Amino acid sequence: MTHQYELMAILQPEIDERQVPTILDKFLTVITEAGGSIDNVDIWGKRRLAYEIQKKNEGIYAVVNFTATSEATQELDRQLSLNEQFMRTKVLRAEEAIAMVASEAKRAEARAARKTAAKA
C-alpha cells in the first residue's frame, strides 16, 4: 500500500547548490525502483539554521514530496542517514504534515484570541 510522504533534508553548506538535484536523484531512485513516484522536488537553497548542527550555522534545504510504500520510505531514510552530505533528514506522511500545520494554525488562532481578549 502506498502513501504520500514529505521529505525535508538539510545538506552540508559546502555543497554546490547546482549539484543538489543530482545528489537527491541518486537517493530518490530507491523510491522509483520500488514502484513509487516523485511528485515534487523543491530546493530552497542555503538558509541559516535555527540552531547549530555539526558546528555549522547554514545548510541547504530541500523538500521532496513523493508517493511510496513504507518499506521503500524506510530504505530511503536509512540511506540518507548513512550519507555524510546530509546533516538532517525528516520523513513525514503527508497526512501527518497537514495535521501538524492545522494544529499550529489552531494554536495561533487561540493565541490571537487570548491576546485580543486581554486588550479588551
From TrEMBL:
Gene3D superfamilies: 3.30.70.60. InterPro entries: Ribosomal_bS6 (IPR000529), Ribosomal_bS6_sf (IPR035980), Ribosomal_S6_plastid/chlpt (IPR020814), Transl_elong_EF1B/ribsomal_bS6 (IPR014717). One of its GO terms (molecular function) is structural constituent of ribosome. GO terms for biological process: translation. The keyword RNA-binding applies. The keyword Cell wall biogenesis/degradation does not apply. GO terms for cellular component: cytoplasm; ribonucleoprotein complex; ribosome. Keywords: Ribonucleoprotein, Ribosomal protein, RNA-binding, rRNA-binding. Binds together with bS18 to 16S ribosomal RNA. Belongs to the bacterial ribosomal protein bS6 family. This is Small ribosomal subunit protein bS6. It comes from Microbacterium album.
